[in-house]
Amino acid sequence: MGRLSELFAPETVGVIGATEREGAVGRAILENLHQEFTGEVVPINPSHDAVLGLEAYPDVASAPPLDLAVVVVPPPVVLETIREIGEAGTQHVVVITAGFAESGGEGARREAELREIAAEYDLNVVGPNSLGVMSTPVSMNATFGPESARDGSISFMSQSGAFITAVLDWANEQGIGFQDVVSLGNKTILDETDFVREWGDDSETDVIIGYLEDIDAGDEFIRTAREVTEETPIVLVKSGRTDAGAQAASSHTGAIAGSERAYEAGLEQAGVIRASSVQELFDAARSLSGLPAPESDGVAIVTNAGGPGVLTTDAVGDSSLRMADFTDETIDKLHEAMPDEANVYNPIDAIGDADIDRFGRALEIALADPNVGSAVVVSAPTAVIQYDKLAEVVIEKRQDFEKPVVTCLMGGDRARAAETVLREFGIPNYFDPARAVGGLDALARYRDVRQRTSDEPTAFDVDRERAREILERVERRDGNRLGIESMALLDAYGIPTPPGEIVDDPARAREVAEAIEGDVVMKIVSPDITHKSDIGGVKVGVSDDEVYDAYEDVVARARNYQPDATILGVQVQAMLDLEGTTETIVGMNRDPQFGPLLLFGLGGIFVEILEDTSVRVAPIGESAAREMVDEIRAAPLLRGARGREPADVDAIVETIQRLSQLVTDFPAILELDVNPLVAGPDGVQAIDLRLTVDTEDL
């Protein structure tokens, strides 16, 4: 265990605010501790000599040394109490009391002061506004919940105390046990990253699960979770699936890559398995805590009921797994072992009169097949099947072949005894076949997490000072946006751009055009006009003789469209041969939790219509950048589908990495779009640029 080991294995727990008053939180916590805790429980209350038969002390200073202090005093007294705890040398504190940042301005000020006191005394504080903590190895229930957890190897954290009480009630009924349980509360000091790190170091924790509403420091969480998931799986339910954060975004990237996309990308990069419901959370945890990972994705189904077998097959099709293709040898053996009317092709239907021996033989043959990585045993209750005997066979075959097996013993009380036996050997039973497949799917997903390689970001040779100078131009603007007038920013980071220049009079436009071979493209340059082509602010294929009039026309159209817009001039740019190329977009939106969120996808005018994009949290290396390209639906276009000449994918991958380095080097960049980034056989060219800059962070 790590620095929080004493929080979960204290020898002495003090309850500051312990009382005998019926219905009081201080009484509930003391009762929970007094009934089960293997260590010493110390009530602290200046108004009592004893509480619930235990000797009480007037303050922390007069009490025996405490390994853990649980604070249940009124909000105005909390800060003074925390300081007394720090003075006494106790390092671990759980603040149950509410009335902090969640309650408004005064509470927020109180919480800020709590943070200062904790820093002064180097305190590990859970809460405030917490239900408390539990640890089953020492029988500690330092919460005011009505239920204690069963023993188990799952460690569980939740931002909602009410969620914990509901889950424990359900888990106890289901026979699911826990190692440690933490109600995070307001996360003033200790947050989800601290507990992921702690439980990752705990050899007794097999699976980390959690219910989170937000993640405070996303970049730190990703780094920590990525290390932990090399040995310990993490499964989370993240609530608040909303795109509300994207509503205020000014860039394409910001509009598409809202808050939910950031969590999806961040949790994926962290190696976290994300569950969409509480049921899915525990279905995954039950498999991960007791079964080995499958060596392959092939699933065998053994059943005595055709309908449930089909349902299970459908569930496999909906998962990341696949139905195993049996070898000819396996099919021959099944033909010999099964009656003529049985189905020996996956799913194996041993038919309704299958007894224990037939079930066992079918499962044995299936697990022996090299194409089978895992199996689901699905059984409807019949007069010839005793579930307890079937459970014994499943346990035996799982151990013989060392492959993951889950069961779906359908029925009610008839299945309970068998379910208990299976659980003792780490085999979860599910009533619904789809949930059984979900358990196997979680095992396969975690296997993929462990096998994933993550390369370090490439450090390209760039001109950082030049880039800084360009970004600082925003300080001379009324707003905080820069546009194509800042294309040199991309040049500074090695991202190719076509030859061109921004000019502020038609005569100079003509000179620039004449210096460029062939026709040119002309665009209005204004930080206030987003969709230039929609207002006629873009002219394509302009010859030298047409440049003067084209200049006047795009400026006039811009002024008519938005009279108060700042017009910086007109960009004169070499016109590219776009035949055989694909317009893509690379961009970044800085998420408040996870930081720079990179985006790649199909670009041009279709970016917000098709939304064919992939996202990652920067910084990223080459493998992650290549995954971004491969993930979009339009990837075949880039790789030469239907006779097209392939685009230079390596150049796209390098551009994504260079953009990753740029936005990591400059946290002041809040949003950035390169749209389009034209990708062709000869490389890439960035045609247009928009970015938003935090002027206070330059």
UniProtKB/TrEMBL annotation:
It catalyses: acetate + ATP + CoA = acetyl-CoA + ADP + phosphate. Its EC number is 6.2.1.13. Coiled coil: none annotated. It comes from the Archaea. It comes from Natrialba hulunbeirensis JCM 10989. It is an enzyme of class 6 (ligase). This is acetate--CoA ligase (ADP-forming). InterPro entries: Acyl-CoA_Synth/Transferase (IPR051538), ATP_grasp_subdomain_1 (IPR013815), CoA-bd (IPR003781), Ligase_CoA_dom (IPR043938), NAD(P)-bd_dom_sf (IPR036291), Succ_CoA_lig_flav_dom (IPR032875), Succinyl-CoA_synth-like (IPR016102). Keywords: ATP-binding, Ligase, Nucleotide-binding.
